[in-house]
Design brief:
The complex is a heterodimer. Chain A is an alpha/beta fold. Chain A has one domain: LigB-like (Protocatechuate 4,5-dioxygenase, Chain B, 3-Layer(aba) Sandwich), CATH 3.40.830. Chain A is 36% helix and 22% strand. Chain A has 10 helices and 10 strands. In chain A, the strands form 3 sheets. Chain A has a 6-stranded mixed β-sheet, with helices on both faces. In chain A, strand 9 and strand 10 form a beta hairpin. In chain A, helix 4 crosses helix 6. Chain A is globular. Chain B is mainly alpha-helical. Chain B folds into 2 domains: 77 residues, Protocatechuate 4,5-dioxygenase, Chain A; 31 residues, no CATH class. In chain B, 58% of the residues lie in helices and 0% in strands. Classes of the chains: A alpha/beta, B mainly alpha. Chains A and B meet through helix 7 and helix 9 of A and helix 2, helix 7, helix 8 and helix 9 of B.
Amino acid sequence: MGRIIAGVTTSHVPAIGAALDNGKSGEPYWKKVFDGYKRSKEWIRKAKPDVILLVYNDHASAFSLEIIPTFALGCAAEFPIADEGWGPRPVPKVIGHPELAAHVAQSVILDEFDLTVVNTMEVDHGLTVPLSLMYGQPKEWPCRVIPLPVNVVVYPPPTAHRCYQLGRALRKAIRSYDEDLRVVVFGTGGMSHQLQGPRAGFINSKFDHRFLDLMTKDPKALARITHLELLREAGSEGIELVMWLIMRGALDEKVREVHRFYHVPASNTAVGHLILENVK
Amino acid sequence: MGKPNAYDDIPGTTVFDAQRSRQGYHLNMFCMSLMKAENRETFKANERAYLDRWPMTEEQKQAVLDRDWNGMIDRGGNIYYLAKLFFTDQKSFQYVAAIMTGSTQEEYAAMMLKGGRRPEGNRYKREWKKKRG
């Protein structure tokens, strides 16, 4: 059966990708960010997932205001890298796992999560920056990736509770797959940040640290957090933290925190990163 | 436009909700069109003429021409769509964030290096009113 071995959360700030792509990762400003992922690279090399189920949001790249799926699942064999205005990031194309994705889609829809099946999709920095942070700059990504984009651009995103419940349904889906596969779930975005209006630059480290603590200790408390609290306390773009709850819901109730990193700033954003392993 | 929302009392913040998405649809879709290199060239050659292809309001068009970022947000613009416009101008998120907060890019970058804008005094509109007397 499919086995979820761990979950990873990380911010997906576009400037981090640009720093890496332009050879700036050794500069003092960026080194502080990349140093926080050194242990993560070792960890994922040893963990060797076959598939990453990657929860992220599209930033007006593959989707626009024409169609706004709340939850979608990338079921294609491969996903080209989007041109976000500066040319596509020089990273390998993303190879999907259509068989597992089709199984997951069928399972969660029957579990009453009416997600949108996507068979053609480009992926943007929301998906590629987390891969770069965990794997560096390989010629090919060492595992398959199933993208799960969530709308967090047009308010309201799905609630934290709904995200957590989707995670539970994904867990069930992956465990009922008949091939032995090691799966790691990524929940990306956040942490506190605001990119617009006179309050831009908003950062709430106290809120972020509490959020990081509760991811391990009491995710059900996080699943009760309201959009209003997220907007006020984590900033208008910090609301994307709901995506972390999908990852958390996919893990067992009891998890072990094996790595944590927190740093301010990467451009306009607080960077937060966790690796959580299921305790067998 | 529906009832007031609980989030309306967060200072300096415009929540891009369903009403704003409706109001800013053409403004944001104009920005989206700048994802294509040929459209960027046409826009740069004659901004006004390019804007006139879109059923946007005159205020929205003027805000684009003036690069009035807060003005665009007020008229239904969303930051991830506006990014296509400031990328066309070869500008960054920090450049635009600094303008929206009324500071220079140096001041803004320094604030971020010191840990960003603190939550204290920045949660409710009444706190900003008090500050400004």
